[in-house]
Design brief:
Low-confidence stretches: none
Number of helices: 2
Largest sheet: 5 strands, antiparallel
Structural class: mainly beta
Shape: globular
CATH class: Mainly Beta
Helix content: under 10%
CATH architecture: Roll
Strand order of the largest sheet: 4-3-2-1-5
Number of strands: 5
Distance between the termini: 43 Å
CATH topology: SH3 type barrels
Length: 110
């Protein structure tokens, strides 16, 4: 049996993850007023993607203002070294913070 164009599943915008486990990322530094979902102490910090959270979800920041129209993106579990958050941190360099961050807050690093 051959596959036709009607047999293929084409993901909607935002359903295909923008990042993959192992990707190096930086948390965005924007300063929104009002409804936001990223702790201030993480903005501008670097980490790496540990896991893609499935399924993709509606952007709850935009949804809070009634501006979403159903757009979906992914959350990612990222690992941020504690020394990245606190430069004077003196314990193990393996110590990390694991946190889920929405795709719109992440930037790809080289």
């Amino acid at each position: 049996m051959t596959q036709t164009q009607f047999d293929r599943v084409v993901p909607a915008t935002g359903e295909t993850p923008a990042f993959a486990p192992g990707d190096r990322v930086r948390v965005g530094t924007r300063v929104p007023i009002g409804h936001y979902r990223v702790p201030r102490y993480l903005r501008g910090k670097r980490g790496r993607v540990v896991k893609i959270i499935e399924p993709s979800l509606i952007d709850n920041e935009e949804e809070g203002y009634g501006r979403n129209a159903g757009n979906r993106r992914h959350y990612y579990r990222i690992s941020v070294p504690l020394a990245e958050i606190w430069p004077d941190y003196e314990a193990s360099p393996r110590d990390e913070l694991l946190i889920e961050v929405f795709e719109t807050w992440l930037e790809c690093l080289p």
